[in-house]
Amino acid sequence: MRKLVVVLLFYSSSLAAMQLNSQNAIVVDDRNGQVLLEKNASTVVPIASLTKLMTAMVVLDSKPNMDEKIDIKEDDVDQLKHSRSHVPVGSSITRRDALQLALMSSDNRAAASLARTYPGGNNAFLVAVKSKLVALGMPNTVIKEATGLSPENTSTAADLVKMAQAAARYPEIADITTDSEDSISLKDGRTREFHNTNRLVGKKGWDVLLSKTGFTNEAGNCLIMRVKLAGKMATLVLLNARASSARLMDALNIGKLLGYKEEVKHKLARHRRRR
């Protein structure tokens, strides 16, 4: 027991001393709720596409027909940031595929279509979002639309841990956000391959249990992950990194202190093969 306490203190002190590129961050031990790292975790900032985890939960809470076809319309096109989408207007996809595209590839048209086709439409969707925020105890979070494109979608790293932990309890969200890639039929029956926006999903040595990335100019590069590394489970939130590479480096450094040792595993594997 004494050795375990020493190890836990080592991880906690090492994480606390880490220099992060992200301007706002938090790492929580999922076993006991201990905060292992904090950096401006109570500061309210834009959250970009991390919003889509909330969108997914609210949609799934309505118990919709996931096989129902959704037509992608002009109403789903981003008029705020004019972001690109690989889902053409006129495509007809299942609600399940729309959820897949919104979460795994962070497609904004797919997310917008989920809110538009919510029972009662966008207004009812936003009412449900407010109720969900209250239920999860996220008082410092405001969500004005489903995609995260609006800089008015704001939260704190501390609040977003609660969102991540809640989202992880939805098997559909956990499965989709940890898919490396998927092929989906779009307009005219053409099939297109989509990839996860988080490069750590599928990376050897990383057991990612939940994932979502985000980026806008206002929010910077953001990341939510639940991971299991070396027997330890943790939730991390990284907000407002200056580049996707900086966000990735923060996640890798946190992973190493939690127990990620890919190179050592490779060496041991080669040694066993020689035997």
Write the layout of secondary structure elements.
Layout: H1 2-16, E1 24-29, E2 35-39, E3 45-46, H2 51-61, E4 69-71, E5 92-94, H3 95-104, H4 108-116, H5 121-136, E6 154-155, H6 157-167, H7 171-177, E7 181-185, E8 191-195, E9 207-216, E10 220-229, E11 232-241, H8 244-258, H9 262-274
Antiparallel strand pairs: 1-2, 1-11, 3-6, 4-5, 7-8, 9-10, 10-11
Helix pairs in contact: 2-5, 2-6, 3-4
Describe the structure in brief.
It is built from nine helices and eleven strands.
Report on the structure:
This protein is α+β, with helices and mostly antiparallel strands and 275 residues long. It contains 9 helices and 11 strands. It has helices at 2-16, 51-61, 95-104, 108-116, 121-136, 157-167, 171-177, 244-258, 262-274; strands spanning 24-29, 35-39, 45-46, 69-71, 92-94, 154-155, 181-185, 191-195, 207-216, 220-229, 232-241. A 5-stranded antiparallel sheet has the order 2-1-11-10-9, sandwiched between helices. Strands 3-6 form a two-stranded antiparallel sheet. It has a two-stranded antiparallel ribbon with strand order 4-5. Strand 10 and strand 11 (232-241) form a beta hairpin. The two termini are 35 Å apart.
